[in-house]
């Protein structure tokens, strides 16, 4: 797909939907001696999600597993939509689009494995992490350079914000917010 076509599709995006294992996380399951498992999330991905929300984009997460760790992270980031325990993701993706009044061509979907192919085929901007399964890479309009759990979500969001012309403005908002926070801290510490 041409760069111009990717830009055109990214400009239309109003809803960003992410898989969890292999996209929001590195795909690893870390088990402790009691059989409980944990997941690792990238803090930069979280800030990217907050930036997307700040410009009015909706965020959705669809995952095949039902994990308390994921539910906690989704809740912490105030993500609009969380669908857990769904291996068949196409109907969940359609429902997310309907709930937000977004046509599938106005949605981006980032996946890595076979269960993501259905919604990726429906999305206007299907993206994949670089270590995705070969069949997923074939469906992707854009392959990210960062792996899952290591900045892929942030990269996808940056692409959409850049193409929509929002990236510089959002960065400036964060800079101003940090400057105000530092000034307030200095006043409190006097």
UniProtKB/TrEMBL annotation:
Keywords: Hydrolase, Magnesium, Metal-binding. The keyword Nucleotidyltransferase does not apply. CDD domains: HAD_KDO-like. It holds the Pfam family Hydrolase_3. Gene3D superfamilies: HAD superfamily/HAD-like (3.40.50.1000). Its cofactor is Mg(2+). Homotetramer. Belongs to the KdsC family. PANTHER family: HAD SUPERFAMILY MEMBERS CMAS AND KDSC, N-ACYLNEURAMINATE CYTIDYLYLTRANSFERASE. NCBIfam families: KdsC-phosphatas. This is Phenylphosphate carboxylase subunit delta. It comes from Oceanidesulfovibrio marinus.
């Amino acid at each position: 797909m041409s760069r111009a076509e990717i830009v055109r599709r990214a400009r239309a995006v109003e809803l960003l939907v992410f898989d969890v294992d292999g996209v929001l996380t590195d795909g690893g399951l870390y088990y402790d001696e009691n059989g409980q498992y944990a997941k690792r999330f990238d803090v930069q991905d979280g800030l990217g999600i907050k930036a997307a929300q700040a410009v009015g984009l909706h965020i959705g997460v669809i995952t095949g597993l039902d994990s308390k760790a994921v539910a906690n992270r989704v809740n912490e980031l105030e993500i609009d939509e969380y669908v857990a325990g769904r291996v068949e993701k196409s109907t969940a993706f359609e429902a997310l689009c309907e709930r937000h009044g977004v046509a599938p061509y106005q949605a981006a979907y980032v996946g890595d494995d076979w269960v993501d192919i259905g919604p990726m085929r429906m999305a206007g901007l299907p993206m994949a992490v670089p270590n995705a399964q070969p069949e997923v890479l074939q469906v992707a309009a854009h392959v990210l350079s960062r792996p899952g759990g290591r900045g892929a979500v942030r990269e996808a969001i940056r692409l959409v914000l850049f193409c929509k012309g929002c990236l510089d403005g959002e960065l400036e908002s964060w800079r101003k917010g940090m400057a105000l926070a530092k000034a307030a801290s200095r006043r409190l510490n006097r």
